[in-house]
TrEMBL record, chain A:
Protein name: WGS project CABT00000000 data, contig 2.9
GO cellular component: NatB complex
Highest taxon listed in the record's lineage: Eukaryota
Family classification: Belongs to the MDM20/NAA25 family.
InterPro entries given in the database record: NAA25_NatB_aux_su
Automatic annotation (TrEMBL), chain B:
PROSITE patterns: GNAT (PS51186)
Basic and acidic residues bias spans: 163-186
Region of interest: Disordered: 149-186
The protein's name in its UniProt record: WGS project CABT00000000 data, contig 2.17
Organism of provenance: Sordaria macrospora (strain ATCC MYA-333 / DSM 997 / K(L3346) / K-hell)
Positions of the N-acetyltransferase domain: 2-160
Pfam families: Acetyltransf_1
Length: 1012, 186
């Protein structure tokens, strides 16, 4: 059947022109009249279907259902339906047909039709339709029918459609556990049979039912890996036809990788060693393109496998020998040369003689020498630091000294060009920073020295200072050193002119080193649990501001640098300058597909930091919303039919999995929840309950929501032994399954207590309606309470939340229980006094904790330098959760009260009204919350006034540069270095203006937030 | 350091090193998936040791619809490079070249007559890059990027590279099945 205008199916040719025209023009009333007439005269049920299809285009609810009823009847009749009728009815019902309904009605109808007409050209259309509704059961049946019908036709496609769909079904929730087993066995058998045909025939022709194309063999590998036994897989990989080596000769690299990864997952090192060795030999002999084998991954696995070999020495010698042969190849591109150089470095670290970190010997071990050789060739490449970082972090202390004190200074001496010198120097700075994050530079220090106790548990072996972690004295010298090189570049016009020709502007690296070092000196640490204080609470504000200033100054010079932007956007969020952070974020142009992995970097928790951002002209979450709506609008994975049509079986499997992951994205949940919170904050109307959104349709408590945040573009100078940089920069723990679920459940709770029946809603039988509503409310509250409690008590949850979040979710969970208890105790029942008082007092305790954290922050004596405003502005997150929690309490109390009032109105006897003690307890919570909300309002007002006062320029400059008075000597060294780079206090004035303005905008936004 | 392999949809979550660079366009999900679905061997990536994508190439195989057959713009069966990008930190190591060569090999395996692509005439780096691999300017098109201006910097160039199957194109020309296209100012 072809499709006409507006996607309307074309009617059968036999239909007369008058009816055709009416249908094409969408004159539904005419169509109904004409079709009815034709049906009566011709008795052809097709005309009835046309009539029904036209009726379903009309507005009335009953008319809309007629198509569904007609479909049901066809299903029940067990007869083979007319194809065009099915098409017509499917089209008619398209807008209100759920996928599950499809799988019970149209899917089986189509499968029934195909069974009767397997060779019809419309069969494939039936398969496509089932896939559009992701009805895998019917789709698999159709594909199997097609495969049987065309088994001898040479059209291999049907066979592999059938196999692929059987496999998809065997891993799909649409299939019962028992059927999953059956389908798993079936698909393995089918592929084994196909593989055996290939193995046993001289040459597979396309009419045979063997494996031929790469995609077919890939499907075979994947299915065997997932459903077969390890032994079977391993033995089948030995095949001289379908095994990975044979396939590699055909240039089929993906299969080679699949085998290699499988072996790795089973720690089959000898097999890895053999496979890599043979593959690389194929590359050397020209039997496969080097492209297929020269990846770093192959080399790395090869070297690692050799180091695990029983005969390690011989195996490693073989690695070396193959490496040498590759080095001798003339055709190596720069990339392969680099891969080989890195492998040489890697093998040095696998040598059995490599000294451990104990090293008393000289530091110039082969490992250090290899690092030196590598850097000598690649020091000026952007990736040089990343390439050697993990190796350097693994060196023993003596080796570190050998590298830093002998190898690198010597290399520096040998560089004659000025630009090479500064590049190498800035690389050395980065390495020095890295070493402050490595434990081998520390030794434990006795807690009593010269009879005196002290609180420095370590001694830095590089500078001998007694320290707590990290070594501040080293960090300070790194800052000074970096600033000095920076100055050298800025003062040298020759160097400045050379910068555009370099791989990277060394000033960016130097600014990053300075920024990172000063952040560490400021005391910024990862906040990875719910007991951590507010982000900047225990940070030295001057140093923090200096770090931001240095980085901001650099961004002005090199606005195109992505890493700087990402870092600064995070830092400004920490500082409470969300609007400025947004200005920095926007040019990164995170849009469309990359939003899922990148927008959390800016938008996570944004409504708690600066709801004002949501009042801009363009809805803040619109791009995310439209991305998810576009990508997930149907339950069928996007573009999957294209993959069927092209025989890309591995793509089908990957796209299906990707689709399932995208539906479970933490970012998706984040975008919905952040937007709802902001909408509520400004008193907007929430259109749809969160649980009713199509995007949350398949999410229940057992769904594992995935965090896919991509930190790949951060410059991470930290050693692999410690947390990566992003953990220092976030307001709190990253997105997680736990937090996403809690936020989803809390929103559902709010939906319930905010639910108001439409004003004109007059139930036909009020008392029956009331019983139903009551049952629904009790059921929902009890489910929500169970779910919330279970998520809160998971051992992994505390590490997934900030402290204010933990309180909020705890309180919401307790509230759901308290409300349920209050509603279930009517005046007529005995009152569960103890339960209720435990609940409300737990709520009070939790809330008081949060409130204290908030109020103490608004009154406590400030640390030297800055006043309390600084801390308040950088901790709007706590304020936000005080407000959210208080409002949840107030609204819960109001919900209980309204319930009681309704019961009173309904049943004048008063028997069904709530127990007065329950009401009173809820009221008390309300009073407590109301008082706190007033405090929140006052707090915002105070901030507004503080920001409205003059003198901010001087004040901020004093905060930043420490006001000199009482400054510690060591801090002075850092401050001077910063002043040099940013051009002194004057150089910082514009920046101060931006920071203060952004604070002002944030507070202005808060001023608009509803407090009731 | 790099590994080369076929694109997988999960790679989209690791695109930042390439796609945060302003010269690289980010498309809707369906666009990437369409390429992965239809021409998986023409969508290749390079990844670093952390799984970040540091380069990728997307291409397709196509010919003009039959009704163009007698138009001078008719294109026979060929491969088209839709996008190629390498992360700044991994440039000038030959990654772009290897990705392109891999696509050309896949195009050959699919009997493509030539490979072509569009590039903004202001993207000198990219033009240098293609020229170094033997591509030449075939035609200059105004307003390809749809900004409706007569600004010459907004025009774009079609570059082409003959494939092993090019000789068939010559044959085709001789036997009159298709006319040689010579278009554009260059
Ligand atoms: C164009 C681009 C893909 C090149 O990738 P690459 O991996 O750096 O290129 P290669 O290292 O493979 O370069 C191969 C050859 O191309 C030429 N070339 C590449 N980049 C060049 C540049 N910036 N200037 C001059 N020639 C260049 C050189 O001849 C080079 O060989 P050589 O290094 O031995 O001299 C990359 O610069 C990029 O991603 N740019 C941004 C995105 C873009 O513009 N894409 C093209 C849109 S159609």
């Amino acid at each position: 059947m072809s499709y006409g205008r507006y996607g309307r199916p074309a009617l059968k040719n036999s239909v007369d022109v008058q009816l055709q025209t009416a249908f094409t023009d969408g004159n539904w009333n005419t169509v109904i009249r004409l079709a009815d007439k034709r049906f009566k005269t011709l008795k052809d049920p097709y005309y009835e279907a046309i009539k029904i299809a036209a009726e379903s285009q009309l507005d009335g609810t009953i008319e809309r259902c007629t198509a569904l009823i007609a479909i049901d009847e066809l299903v029940k009749s067990k007869a083979v339906p007319d194809y065009d009728t099915v098409e017509l009815l499917e089209w008619a019902a398209r807008d209100y047909l759920y996928d599950t309904e499809y799988a019970e009605t149209l899917g089986p109808l189509r499968a029934r039709w195909v069974k009767a007409n397997p060779k019809s050209k419309f069969s494939v259309k039936c398969l496509q339709s089932c896939l559009e509704y992701w009805d895998l059961v019917s789709a698999q049946q159709i594909a199997t029918t097609l495969d049987k019908a065309f088994a001898n036709s040479g059209d291999r496609q049907y066979m592999f459609w059938s196999i692929t769909l059987t496999y998809l079904l065997s891993i799909s929730p649409q299939c019962s556990e028992a059927s999953k087993k059956v389908y798993s066995l079936l698909v393995v058998k089918q592929l084994e049979r196909a593989a055996d045909i290939t193995e046993n025939s001289e040459k597979v022709e396309s009419k045979d039912r063997g494996l031929l194309q790469e995609e077919e063999i890939s499907l075979y590998y994947r299915v065997m890996l997932s459903h077969g036994s390890k032994e079977d897989f391993v033995s089948r990989m030995e095949s001289s036809k379908l095994g990975p080596l044979a396939q590699l000769k055909e240039g089929r690299k993906d299969l080679f990788y699949q085998a290699l990864n499988a072996y790795e997952s089973w720690s089959e090192w000898d097999r890895i060693y053999d496979l890599c060795r043979q593959a690389l030999r194929l590359g050397l002999d020209g039997a496969t393109p080097t492209f297929s084998v020269c990846d770093y991954k192959v080399w790395k696995k090869f070297a690692l496998a050799a180091s695990k070999s029983r005969d390690q020495e011989t195996a490693l010698a073989e690695v070396q020998s193959i490496l040498k042969e590759f080095i001798a190849l003339k055709t190596n591109t720069a990339m392969y040369k680099k891969n080989i150089a890195l492998t040489l470095l890697d093998t040095a670290f696998h040598q059995p003689t490599a000294p451990g970190s104990s090293g008393n010997e000289s530091g110039l071990t082969p490992r250090v020498i290899q690092i030196g050789l590598y850097l000598d060739s690649y020091f000026d490449k952007l990736s040089a630091f990343d390439d050697v970082k993990d190796f350097v972090a693994e060196l023993g202390f003596e080796e570190v000294k050998g590298l830093m004190e002998e190898v690198l200074p010597k290399m520096l001496e040998e560089k004659s060009e000025k630009s090479s010198q500064v590049i190498l120097k800035s690389l050395i700075c980065k390495l020095r920073y890295l070493l402050t994050t490595c434990t081998q530079t520390l030794s434990h220090n006795p807690s009593v020295v010269d009879g005196q106790e002290h609180d420095k548990p370590y001694q830095c072996r590089l500078c001998s200072a007694l320290i707590t972690l990290p070594c501040e004295s080293c960090l300070r010298s790194v800052v000074a050193e970096a600033a000095q090189i920076y100055q050298q570049i800025v003062d040298d016009s020759e160097l400045l002119a050379a910068i555009p020709r370099l791989d990277k502007d060394p000033r960016i690296d130097l600014a990053l080193v300075m920024g990172n070092s000063i952040l560490k000196l400021s005391g910024l640490r990862p906040r990875t649990s719910d007991v951590a204080p507010a982000p900047l609470r225990d940070v030295n504000p001057s140093l923090f501001l200096q770090a931001v200033l240095v980085l901001d100054t650099q961004l002005k010079v090199t606005p195109g640098d992505v890493a700087l932007r990402l870092l600064l956007a995070q830092l400004y969020l920490l500082l409470g300058c969300a609007s400025y952070a947004y200005q920095i974020w926007t040019p990164l142009d995170v849009k469309r597909t990359i939003q899922d992995s990148l927008s959390p970097l800016f938008f996570d928790r944004i409504s708690s930091l600066s709801p004002g951002l949501f009042t801009g002209t363009r809805p803040l979450m619109e791009p995310l919303r439209s991305y998810y709506n576009n990508s997930l609008h149907s339950s069928c994975p996007l573009r999957i039919w294209d993959a069927f049509g092209s025989g890309s079986y591995s793509s089908i499997l990957e796209m299906t999995e990707f689709d399932s992951k995208l539906r479970r994205s933490c970012t998706l949940m984040m975008s919905i929840v952040e937007e709802r919170r902001a909408t509520r904050a400004f008193g907007g109307k929430i259109e749809c309950e969160i649980g009713d959104l199509a995007l949350t349709d398949n999410i229940d408590d057992t769904t594992i929501l995935l965090n896919k945040t991509d930190y790949g573009s951060f410059v991470n100078l930290e050693s692999p032994q410690g947390p990566p940089i992003q953990e220092f920069l976030r307001i709190g723990p990253e997105l997680s399954n736990e937090r996403a679920h809690l936020s989803f459940l809390a929103e559902q709770y709010l939906d319930l207590i905010h639910h108001k029946p439409p004003k004109d809603h007059r139930p036909y039988k009020p008392s029956e309606a009331s019983i139903k509503e009551r049952a629904y409310t009790f059921e929902t509250l009890s489910q929500l309470n169970n779910s919330l409690t279970s998520f809160i008590h998971r051992p992994t949850t505390p590490a997934a939340l900030t402290s204010p979040e933990a309180t909020y979710y705890t309180v919401v969970s307790l509230l759901s229980a308290a409300v349920l208890t209050a509603l279930s105790s009517t005046r007529a029942d005995p009152y569960p006094a103890e339960t209720m008082s435990v609940l409300t007092s737990s709520i009070r305790t939790a809330f008081t904790g949060l409130r204290t954290r908030f109020t103490s922050s608004s009154t406590s004596s400030s640390s030297p330098g800055v006043d309390e405003t600084f801390y308040s502005l950088s901790d709007m997150h706590t304020l936000s959760y005080v407000r959210e929690t208080a409002l949840a309490m107030r609204h819960s109390a109001a919900f209980v009260q309204a319930w009681n009032d309704r019961e009173l109105a309904r049943d004048r006897s008063g028997k069904s009204t709530l127990h007065k003690d329950g009401l009173a307890e809820m009221k008390a919570l309300d009073a407590m919350a109301a008082k706190t909300v007033t405090e929140v309002k006052g707090h915002i007002q105070k901030l507004k006034e503080a920001l409205g006062q003059g003198g901010w320029l001087d004040k901020m400059l004093d905060w930043t540069f420490g006001g000199e008075k009482g400054e510690k000597e060591e801090d002075e060294k850092v401050r001077k270095a910063v002043e040099d780079v940013v051009g002194g206090r004057e150089g910082a004035e514009e920046w101060v203006g931006k920071v203060v303005e952004s604070w002002g905008q944030g507070v202005k936004g808060w001023g608009l937030v509803k407090m009731e | 350091m790099a590994n080369f392999r076929q694109f997988r949809p999960d790679d989209l979550n690791k695109f930042s090193k390439c796609n945060l660079d302003p010269f690289t366009e980010t498309y809707e999900l369906g666009f990437y998936l369409q390429y992965h679905a239809k021409w998986p061997s023409l969508f290749q990536v390079a990844e670093d040791q952390h799984g970040n994508i540091i380069g990728y190439i997307m291409g397709k195989l196509e010919s003009s619809p039959d009704y163009y057959k007698f138009s001078e713009h008719y294109l026979p069966w060929h491969a088209h490079i839709t996008a190629v990008t390498v992360a700044p930190e991994a440039r000038r190591l030959g990654i772009g070249k290897m990705l392109t060569e891999q696509l050309e090999a896949a195009a050959d395996a699919n009997d493509a007559w030539f490979v072509d692509l569009f590039v903004r005439s202001t993207n000198h780096k990219a033009i240098q890059f293609y020229k170094s691999m033997g591509y030449s300017i075939f035609r200059t098109v105004k307003d390809y990027y749809g900004d409706h201006s007569s600004d010459p910097t907004k025009s774009s160039r079609i570059l082409r590279h003959a494939q092993a199957h090019e000789e068939r194109r010559q044959e085709g020309a001789r036997s009159g099945k298709w006319r040689e296209v010579r278009g554009g100012p260059e």
